[in-house]
Amino acid sequence: MTDTPKTRLATDLVHGGRIRTNLYENSEALFLTSGFVYDDAEQAEAVFANQIQHYQYSRFSNPTVAMLEAKLAKIEGADVCRATATGMAAVSAAVLCGVKAGQRVVASRALFGSCHWIISTLLPQYGIETMFVDGADLDQWRAALSQPTALVLLESPSNPMLDIIDLRAVSALAHEAGAIVVVDNVFATPLLQKPLELGADVVVYSATKHMDGQGRVLGGAVLGAKDWMEQVFQPFFRNTGPTMSPFNAWVILKGLETMHLRVKAQSDSAETVARFLEASPKIARALYPTLASHPQRALAMSQMSGGGTMVTFEVEGGKDGAFRLMNALRIVTISNNLGDARSLATHPATTTHMRIGPEERARMGITDGTIRLSVGLEDVQDLIDDLTQALAQV
């Protein structure tokens, strides 16, 4: 048996986590089975008593899903990964598994709409105190974390305004307060930012986005240290069942093989598009982490190795101007998804962040003219040409 060589990221995305059967298949095998069988009743008893390792039921674990989990853990640098049915299943499970009535959760205000609802509405229903802070304001974090706290939830860069949070500083403050730090890293991807290396305890993803990256399946992932994943997360995961299907895991495994190529090309195009938009007189502002005009550019570049695939901009004329531009697009399509091979435009105020209300949107900087653009794999000049003709309608 030869030693496994130490390999780099691109190689890990192709080969990491593979389990071959005795049929020696080249591509990962797809195990579409709900359950598994035992040689005898004694073996089944021993498996359920955790005395021997054996697959039991695909709600608990499945060989195809296990390969995805092993690959994601390797590229993230985490001890353990558990794959979930969706990105929101990952967020909700990571939050709910370790908090209880009477405890306290602090979150950055700049969250995806469904994540915001979990903090603002769901947790208080279970007797959990919650508090929002402006993520870029360390003084607000210090004040909020000056008393015992169970968990901190944040996104960086945030959805949709690309706010950058100082992960090192916030993680240090959170740990002093006794909190677990959960970071939604979907905009940066594990290729451009490593929250665990910056002090976070848990990282969550919507694998629907860049990991599949081609608009095919839903999925999520939770990654963290072995003790927390096995002692805190695993009992919740096993008994509540937010499990990824083997088919979706297989599709995402295929997507991961090319993710480094896609994210690099999309990020390069996104920066070009952002510079174009910033120069347009019909754009009130353009946000992208590597632009000199981004208020937190230095912090972004100290945490990230690239700006990512997302550009956010504000069109003159409010909702009417934003809708005119979006409806005039011919290559870029309207969708609430992101991280896709196709460029997608979203109007957060009327879709992803509609239900948080106008006052909270204003606190987050989301105006009626705000558009979130997920830059895909099209020729960047075609995207600029499309935006040019659409801007002419504003």
Written overview of the protein:
The protein is of the alpha/beta class and 394 residues long. The protein has two domains: 9-30 and 61-256, Aspartate Aminotransferase, domain 2; 259-391, Aspartate Aminotransferase, domain 1. It is 41% helix and 14% strand. The protein contains 16 helices and twelve strands. The chain has helices at residues 9-15, 41-48, 63-76, 87-96, 113-125, 138-144, 167-176, 189-192, 208-212, 226-240, 246-256, 259-278, 297-303, 318-328, 358-364, 380-391; strands at residues 80-84, 104-108, 129-133, 151-155, 180-184, 202-206, 220-224, 283-287, 310-315, 333-334, 344-346, 370-374. The protein has a seven-stranded mixed β-sheet with strand order 1-7-6-5-4-2-3, sandwiched between helices. Strands 8-9-12-11-10 form a five-stranded mixed β-sheet. Strand 5 (180-184), helix 8 (189-192) and strand 6 form a beta-alpha-beta unit. Helix 3 (63-76) packs parallel to helix 11 (246-256), helix 4 (87-96) packs parallel to helix 5 (113-125) and helix 14 packs across helix 16 (380-391). The longest helix has 20 residues, at 259-278. The chain is globular. The model has no long low-confidence stretch (mean pLDDT 97).
